[in-house]
Amino acid sequence: MMKEELIFVPGPGIGHLASGLELAKRLLDHDDRLSITTLVMNMPFTPSINSYTRSLTASQPRIKLVDLPEVDPPPPELLTKSAEAYICDFVESYIPHVKTTVTDIISSLSNSDVRVAGFIFDFFCVSMIDIANEFSLPPYIFITSNAGFLGLMLNLPKRHDEISEVMQMSDPDSLIPGFFNPVPARVLPDAVFNKHGGYAAYVKVAQRFKDGKGIIVNTFAELEPFALRSFSDDHRIPPVYPVGPVLHLKGQPHPEINQDQLDKIMKWLDEQPQSSVVFLCFGSFGSFSPPQVKEIALGIEQSGIKFLWSMRFPGSPSNQFTNPEDVLPEGFLERIEGRGIMCGWAPQVEVLAHKAIGGFVSHCGWNSILESLWYGVPIVTFPIYAEQQLNAFRMVKELGLSVELKLDYRVGGDLVTADEIAKSVICVMQSDSEVRKKVKEMSEKGRKAVMDGGSSFTSITQLIQDITGNN
Ligand code: UPG
To answer: Could you tell me the distance, in angstroms and rounded to a whole number, from the CA of residue 213 to the centre of ligand 1?
Structure first.
């Protein structure tokens, strides 16, 4: 029997890479005829990712990692203007290398019992769809975020055709397919307001979505039924495959974690009563200004709740927790002794899985949201950048699955005060709240979705059939 090879191009950054590789593993677990070649781009500011990628895939021999040759990165000034424009430029500069690599793969497989069946591109890599077309192979797009974000992107080209200008915070609420409520401009991603390449990059990416043969989304039918139904009712949208939650749950030591720190955290959690600790963690790049760090510190102190706080500083490339005393309120560390601990990079999945954790103050990165739903831990929303404000809006206003702290905080915006933080932390830790009940129910639905016969399991089966043409 013919074996099928997929070529997968994950996006840069851990939030994209880890969930992309997990998707690859999920596809392989589903069908033993499949193998996947993953083409890896190495971003200049994520040097430790490479070894992490290897550790994530070591247990799956049918995933082959191919390092693409290095390219000259875009000028660093572009990163300060727009992260999205930087990433898109960076990805585009890889196109010639991807073409050559794919030509080599295809010719090495000629006269074998393996054929390349198709491509999966992270949504930041849709500029590579033309490569798939040149080889007459179907391109699929992987959305590492949710169906709400997909709705925004599907709507963007239409809006751009009507009003070809960046959006403004003062714009009226917009009707976006896949949302029940009109969406306030203040919760839209930074990129859509960015005149320095961010808006243009998003539009360019969004314009290619219709060229995918299918769109794979890290969500599940029970979580976003309304959005998924609205897409399947629209024949202009390629088929959408909700395959999530696709999560990396088996703790793989991250290069940023020091073993002593990890042991210390887990030992401390073991000593705490059930659901008594709030966890604060803000993703791979989430950091705050010193005045905001102070407010957070005063807020958790005021709440009286035990806590584990993963904290980083702006401009600290290794994301390491370096010198807390410079920014924390005076005497804070002494006062919280026994009540709370702080760390740099946290073993987030292990922490969320721990029985001592009762709530999670999160930046609302989609992987963090799915992880907390998986373990039934309710979130307090503290979005910072990317599409996190939209995720916060979705979780609070549309799905009732999170406690609102802020929906529209962004870097450089008004400070979130200690009082507001204390209130929302106390609220999320209530043992009998409606939000906690709903989160527990959704947790069970998410776990069922990926089990044999569940909605996402069925969707993956369909996806593989569609890619390989074996209906
Ligand atoms: N993580 C840790 N320890 C930490 C911080 C993060 O283990 O101290 C893990 C976390 O468990 C998760 C991942 O890192 O698996 C972070 O992913 P996510 O929550 O999605 O945040 P980002 O890394 O910020 O993700 C980017 C975007 C986000 C988007 C996501 C998926 O910032 O807005 O939803 O990509 O597209």
So the answer is: 27
